[in-house]
Specification:
16 helices, 384 residues, 9-stranded mixed beta sheet
């Protein structure tokens, strides 16, 4: 099916940077991607539709002359992220304790390791960095306190300074390894901090009304709700909320679909205490009105590639039933030269963002063709 008009509603990952950043990224990366083809793309200025919705227009002209216009909306929840963002090293230490204690207490660490060990390595290395820096600080401070010949008051002062030094070193390490981000995201999603935030329920209700308004307008051939990284959780929550509020979602003119990119839904769903998210996941998984495809790359540490989120819920009896999502691999190695692919694999943070960035080659995965091109989702990712 050819798409002449589309609406995209986008949730970013666990990132306090707002719509301005993602608009600039879309504009620059879209130009890079389209420069590889005979297609053209025009991205308008960003406008603010409401406090939590920014939008811009995209005009795509294919080499064949076919055109598509896309209304691109960024659904924001950066205020919820900032409300729960560990702001200093002491907050990081508290998040480290609560997050990893919960992983071990519930057995999620070992369960995740059996299902997808690369992701659990990505989730574990921050703990080793934190423990190593703390042991370094404690060891250095103890040696000064107990074995130096300085006056006691000087020893205490120097030991305190030496103990704090590794915390600063940890901040320098974070600039390279982003381990603070991993710790924050584990507690934000895995421990459902986002659901406990007072802004979460009103935000879902507000965005649910917007999604219904877009669908009821009969203006679009296709409506895509896209979530990247932790945005996959927000997207799943919103589709569930909207289906509850509007049982006719997806039965009108537009084909409505949920697209989850580079997410860790199976990991979050596996926590037995995450009842609210589990219910939302089941609600979206079992319905037939809204299509759902999940795309992830095996080389992307934080994501669960080709793993059914429902398979991680031990007490769900309906696993053998026909259910969503449809799973697709993101084969980034087909989108780059050998050297280019080696380079992006060296930067794990960039690799995790690659789902929404341009590629070196016009390969099988193309975020801009997905969000702005003339082909519909089911043509790009047909049912098996």
């Amino acid at each position: 099916m050819k798409v002449s008009k589309r609406a995209v509603c986008y949730f970013c990952g666990f990132d306090p940077r707002g719509a301005r950043f993602y608009h600039a990224m879309y504009r620059s990366e879209g130009k890079k991607q389209l420069d590889l083809t005979d297609n053209t793309i025009k991205v308008s200025k960003r406008t603010k539709k409401s406090d939590h919705i920014n939008q811009w227009k995209i005009e795509w002209t294919a080499a064949s002359g076919d055109k598509c216009e896309t209304d691109y909306h960024v659904f924001s929840y950066d205020d919820i992220i900032k409300n729960n963002w560990a702001k200093n090293e002491w907050d990081i230490l508290k998040d480290t304790w609560t997050g990893y204690y919960e992983l071990l207490r519930t057995g999620l660490f070992w369960k995740g390791w059996k299902v997808n060990w690369p992701t659990m390595v990505a989730a574990s290395y921050p703990l080793f960095i934190i423990v190593a820096t703390l042991l370094l600080g404690v060891g250095a401070a103890a040696s000064i306190l107990f074995f130096s010949e300085w006056h006691l008051s000087i020893r205490i002062l120097v030991a305190a300074l030496v103990f704090c030094a590794p915390l600063y070193i940890g901040r320098l390490i974070d600039q390279k390894w982003n381990h603070y981000w991993v710790i924050r995201s584990i507690t934000f999603g895995g421990l459902q901090k986002y659901r406990k935030d007072s802004n979460f329920t009103p935000r879902m209700q507000e965005l649910s009304k917007e999604l219904t308004r877009l669908d009821e307008s009969a203006e679009y051939d296709e409506i895509l709700l896209i979530g990247h990284s932790f945005g996959t959780v927000m997207g799943t929550e919103l589709i569930s909320q909207t289906l509850n509020d509007d049982p006719d979602l997806g039965t009108r003119k537009a084909n409505v679909s949920l697209v989850t990119l580079g997410g860790s839904l199976p990991f979050i769903a596996s926590h037995p205490g995450n009842t609210g998210f589990r219910n939302a996941l089941k609600n979206v998984s079992l319905q037939k009105q809204v299509d759902w495809i999940d795309i992830a790359a095996r080389v992307d540490g934080p994501s669960f590639s080709m793993i059914d989120p429902m398979s991680m819920i031990d007490d769900w009896p309906g696993l053998k039933e026909d259910h969503l999502p449809r799973l697709f691999p993101a084969r980034f190695f087909k989108c780059f030269s050998e050297e280019g692919y080696r380079n992006i694999k060296k930067n794990r943070f960039q690799l995790h963002f690659q789902y929404i960035l341009s590629t070196e080659l016009d390969g099988e995965y193309n975020f801009f063709k997905l969000t702005a091109g003339t082909q519909c989702l089911k043509d790009l990712y047909p049912e098996n």
